[in-house]
Amino acid sequence: MVILTGGVLPASRIISGFKGKIDFYYYMGVACVRRWPRNRGRSQTPDSVAQQPAFIYVSKLWTAVSPFVKSYYHTLTFDCGLHHKDWFTRGYYGKIYRYPTDYTPPP
């Protein structure tokens, strides 16, 4: 990883040292660049493999969401650190807070 200081790109010899795709991003307000992470051929756990069909389904489902609804996901995720598709995926998996359904008001 290389930290970009002053908003200036590093020397071309440094950038050419990165093989493959390069990822430019901000971390805590600091511009950084790194080589795009690659799968090093590690085997996946059975639980990870079992979740892949659901993840593929929800990824394809995002393309069917109307632009109106997508704009609200963009609004929801403004300055929260998560991408709008992350919120959509969490909502599909039920990982967003749910109010208890068995709530009984106090007497």
Description:
This protein has about 110 residues and is an alpha+beta fold. The protein folds into two domains: about 1-35, no CATH class; about 45-95, no CATH class. It has four helices and three strands. The protein has helices at about 10-15, 45-60, 65-75, 85-95; strands at about 1-5, 20-25, 30-35. The chain has a three-stranded antiparallel β-sheet, with no helix packed on it. Helix 3 crosses helix 4. The N and C termini lie far apart (about 60 Å). The model has no long low-confidence stretch (mean pLDDT about 75).
SSE-based structural type? alpha+beta
Strand order of the largest sheet: 1-3-2
Give the terminus-to-terminus CA distance.
Answer: 59 Å
Can you tell me the overall shape? extended
* Count of all domains: 2
Count all strands and give the number.
Answer: 3
Which parts are unreliable, with pLDDT below 50 for 5 consecutive residues or more? none
Number of helices in the DSSP assignment: 4
* Beta strand %: 5-15%
SSE pattern: EHEEHHH
Give the overall pLDDT as a whole number. Answer: 77
Q: Considering DSSP H and I runs of 4 or more, what fraction of the residues is helical?
A: 40-55%
**CA gyration radius, whole angstroms:** 20 Å
Reported for the largest beta sheet, the result is: 3 strands, antiparallel
